[in-house]
Design brief:
Elements: E1 2-4, E2 20-24, H1 28-40, E3 45-48, H2 51-59, E4 63-69, H3 77-87, E5 93-97, H4 102-110, E6 115-118, H5 123-134, H6 137-151
Helix pairs in contact: 2-3, 5-6
Amino acid sequence: MVRFVPPSSGWEVVDAMDKAIGITDADSKWLNKLRKGLERLGFTVIASQNGSDLFIAFKNSSLSMLITDTHLNDMKGLELISTIRELDSAFPIVATTSDYSDDLEIACRKLGIVFYARKPPNFEVIKWIVARHLGLPDARRKMVAAKTTERS
């Protein structure tokens, strides 16, 4: 099940049992590509170009994980990560970026992200990170089966 969160619009509260992966990125092409890839694996995805929308989902306990770019329409990704870290130091966050600055990577890592990916990231690696941090054995099996099929 996929839910798009329109930028800065009303928010539909998601049932706490229906956890999702949040994706936020100002680049709509990358946002849609990642959303569609995770959807094909059977994940629920909440996607927005605005970090504030995903922060609301985080506060409502609707997210199991967040994938955020470092540049968003309404804030910097570092600001979103930092705000979440003030509330939950262990919440899994993946940071993506087109900015190849070492200082930015260091700042993200100091905030305790689980993975830092320069764009364009390898989708297979993103899938592995998501499966690993969400503890989803079925997703891991699907990825291994897909990889085996690709090699055949």
